[in-house]
């Protein structure tokens, strides 16, 4: 396979995968906002869109467990970027933003998982949950920026895809 064809097939692989993993991630962020309502003081018996706070927390936890491997795969598919990061060879225009999003994701996921699996019911768990939900809000913000940085690439790939299937 020629070099250009190889790059293009990798780009399509990433394109399909990004499409596939987009909705689960948006759903995770959405459930985060819903549980924030209860975390902020609404009684857990109160229903939001048909289910109560404890059920939403369960949905948020399960969605988190589904999304973590999905995001790890997304990072692995963009391994060339991680390679540049660890070898300090970053020079692209979105690198600062990507690095910020990556760091927020790591700390947000770690604080959520530690609060659940290690410090549940302990005061430190509560502190971690506080840190977690603030980072969750930042994650939403930087994810929107991430989307806006790559929407041109996404449109370009969509046009290419449509052209390919004519
Ligand atoms: C990387 C994305 C995320 C992951 C992996 C994740 C994971 C988790 C986990 C595992 C818990 C359970 C902690 C526990 O039971 O003690 C949790 C709780 C929580 N998460 Fe997330 N979360 C993410 C994103 C978000 C976002 C975007 C928000 C909101 C802006 C958010 C808000 C919350 C809140 C408020 C709680 C505590 C709920 C409560 O105390 O009832 N999370 N998260």
Blueprint (SSEs and pairs):
Layout: H1 3-39, E1 47-48, E2 51-52, H2 53-77, H3 79-86, H4 95-117, H5 123-164
Antiparallel strand pairs: 1-2
The structure holds protoporphyrin IX containing FE.
Protoporphyrin IX containing FE binds next to α1, α2, α4 and α5.
What keywords describe this structure?
globular; 2% strand; 81% helix; Fumarate Reductase Cytochrome B subunit; binds protoporphyrin IX containing FE; 5 helices; 166 residues; mainly alpha; two-stranded antiparallel sheet
Please provide a written account of the structure.
The protein is mostly helical. The chain has one domain: Fumarate Reductase Cytochrome B subunit, CATH 1.20.950. The chain contains 5 helices and 2 strands. The longest helix is centred in the C-terminal third of the chain and has 42 residues. It is globular, with a radius of gyration of 19 Å. The mean pLDDT is 92.
């Amino acid at each position: 396979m020629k070099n250009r064809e190889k790059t293009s097939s990798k780009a399509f692989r990433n394109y399909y995968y990004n499409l596939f993993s987009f909705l689960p991630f948006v759903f995770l962020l959405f459930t985060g906002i819903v549980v924030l309502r209860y975390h902020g003081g609404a009684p857990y018996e109160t229903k939001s869109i048909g289910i109560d706070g404890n059920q939403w927390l369960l949905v948020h936890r399960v969605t988190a467990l589904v999304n973590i491997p999905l995001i790890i795969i997304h990072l692995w598919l963009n391994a060339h970027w991680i390679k540049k990061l660890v070898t300090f060879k970053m020079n692209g225009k979105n690198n600062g933003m990507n690095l910020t999003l990556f760091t927020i994701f790591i700390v947000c996921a770690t604080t959520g998982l530690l609060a659940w699996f290690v410090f549940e019911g302990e005061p430190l768990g509560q502190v971690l949950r506080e840190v977690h939900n603030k980072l969750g809000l930042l994650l939403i913000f930087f994810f929107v920026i991430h989307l806006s940085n790559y929407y041109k690439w996404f449109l370009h790939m969509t046009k290419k895809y449509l052209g390919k299937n004519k």
